[in-house]
Amino acid sequence: GGNKVIVEQHRHEGVFIAKGKEDALCTKNMVPGEAVYNEKRISVQNEDGTKVEYRVWNPFRSKLAAAILGGVDNIWMKPGSRVLYLGAASGTTVSHVSDLVGPTGVVYAVEFSHRSGRDLVNMAKKRTNVIPIIEDARHPAKYRMLVAMVDVIFSDVAQPDQARILALNASYFLKTGGYFVISIKANCIDSTVPAEAVFASEVKKLQAEQFKPMEQVTLEPFERDHACVVGAYRV
Ligand code: SAM
Fold this sequence. Notes:
Organism: Ambrosia artemisiifolia
Strand content: 25-35%
Largest sheet: 7 strands, mixed
Distance between the termini: 51 Å
GO molecular function, one term: RNA binding
InterPro entries: Fibrillarin (IPR000692), Fibrillarin_CS (IPR020813), SAM-dependent_MTases_sf (IPR029063)
Bound molecules: S-adenosylmethionine
Number of helices: 6
Family: Belongs to the methyltransferase superfamily. Fibrillarin family.
Catalytic activity: a ribonucleotide in rRNA + S-adenosyl-L-methionine = a 2'-O-methylribonucleotide in rRNA + S-adenosyl-L-homocysteine + H(+)
Order of helices and strands: EEEEEHEHEHEEHEHHEE
């Protein structure tokens, strides 16, 4: 089409915004010509004639995208980062993290459902920086041979014991001075108390496990009663 789309760098390195009637968050496609989950792709011609393709990143389908649009100060992921991703599902968000960290980065993606895991493994065939791991994140010893030390752990397992799962994985794989990003779905943890109380008690659990929570953003309006907490490890 003849529509000229302008794509700009987002404040977060490796993330972009396609300017239009409605701005869209996007990442630079590592595998041009291919979508992962039928997301929209945007092709842009550079001044030197080379083409770049971006994939639109839907915040209704990705908590990390929702956190970015929610104004999170730092995601601690950028080109070249090593990321351990817990709760990868079929790899929707993992594919964007793969774009974001690029060919010099790596995403270790852990998912225990074999059903979702099949899509994840297929996606990883074309994305050499994604290492799919079909295991229970409660048992990191089972995949320790596959994972190197990482810069950041992103956790989206939606389990009542998710703080413990994050801590266990951090003790194996997160470097001292590394970071965590965790999505908290209040009613997965305790549906009998207000969401804010659940977030506060999760933050306490993290503090008790050598994490230093630094910021918290709501994922509303994209996800109801969800928060994203970001912080450092062993500092
Ligand atoms: N992060 C995904 C995305 O943005 O596309 C969505 C993740 S979904 C909310 C939670 C996922 O965590 C599910 O796919 C579930 O099977 C997985 N999960 C839950 N407990 C797990 C565990 N102990 N080990 C590995 N995966 C787990």
